[in-house]
């Protein structure tokens, strides 16, 4: 079943200079996303892969309607939500939540863990303190934390704990889609594996679907069911099975694969330019 669908989504940023009343020059317009189409299916992890600046995060913001597309449509469960008002989008956004790349930078440093996770519930109109606290505790426990963390400030948490709180904040509204924007890039290898295992468990237990944004193809094969590869705002290749990345045919995808560090020195590839120096 299609949960979320992008139909020829395009975002063009106006490159005009000289202030608000300056004359617009169409040649200066900057296409950040160019006619992108794909679908996210139920209980699926879809990888969205590409280098920094290729349009991945802009695409995610359009799906959440935090950015208005210049062209194209966004469909949620078959319903076109592209032109929905802010008020009407509140209900849909409770079903689609974002997990940020750097959890610490997305927190108010003066807020405790309890208040950080309570904010989405307050915004949803849940005013009963006992109900909020019960849901917060249940969500914290689902990500491997507990009541002892409620009164802590973000700076008092480890990197792995900060990421778990970020995931808990996204889960507390009981969504069915999580958009994961480079969620592992700020974690070391050990914490990265723990976070992946946690998200795998949550996906199975809660029936979640993930749109996983990354530049690292080495994670895609481990974490995703399918993958799409973006470059310069457009999709260059779709990989129907992310665990068979070696079957990729596009030159850009092959370049990303070649950039993955080898696990052992004997597996390192020798650049032909180094083996045949011109000097």
From TrEMBL:
Keyword annotations of the record: ATP-binding, Nucleotide-binding
Name of the protein this chain belongs to: ATP-binding cassette domain-containing protein
């Amino acid at each position: 079943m299609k949960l979320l669908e992008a139909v020829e989504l395009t975002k063009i940023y106006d490159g005009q200079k000289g202030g608000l009343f300056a004359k617009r020059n169409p040649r200066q317009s900057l296409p950040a996303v160019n006619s992108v189409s794909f679908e996210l299916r139920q209980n699926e992890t879809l990888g969205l892969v590409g280098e920094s600046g290729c349009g991945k995060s802009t695409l995610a913001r359009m799906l959440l309607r935090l950015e208005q597309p210049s062209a194209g449509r966004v469909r949620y469960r078959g319903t076109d939500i592209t032109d929905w008002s802010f008020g009407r989008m509140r209900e849909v956004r409770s079903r689609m939540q974002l997990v940020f790349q750097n959890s610490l930078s997305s927190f108010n440093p003066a807020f405790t863990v309890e208040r950080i996770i309570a904010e989405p519930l307050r915004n949803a109109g849940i005013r009963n303190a006992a109900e909020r606290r019960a849901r917060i505790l249940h969500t914290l426990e689902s990500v491997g934390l507990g009541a002892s963390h409620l009164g802590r400030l973000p700076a008092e948490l480890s990197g792995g704990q900060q990421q778990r709180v970020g995931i808990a904040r996204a889960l507390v509204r009981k969504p069915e889609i999580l958009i994961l924007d480079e969620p592992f890039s700020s974690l070391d290898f050990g914490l990265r594996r723990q976070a992946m295992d946690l998200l795998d468990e949550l996906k199975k237990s809660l029936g979640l679907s993930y749109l996983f944004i990354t530049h690292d193809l080495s994670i895609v094969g481990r974490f995703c069911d399918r993958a799409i590869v973006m470059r310069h705002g457009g999709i260059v290749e779709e990989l129907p099975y992310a665990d068979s990345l070696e079957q990729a045919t596009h030159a850009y995808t092959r370049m990303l694969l070649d950039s993955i560090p080898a696990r052992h020195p004997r597996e390192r590839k020798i650049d032909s330019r180094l083996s045949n120096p011109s000097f």
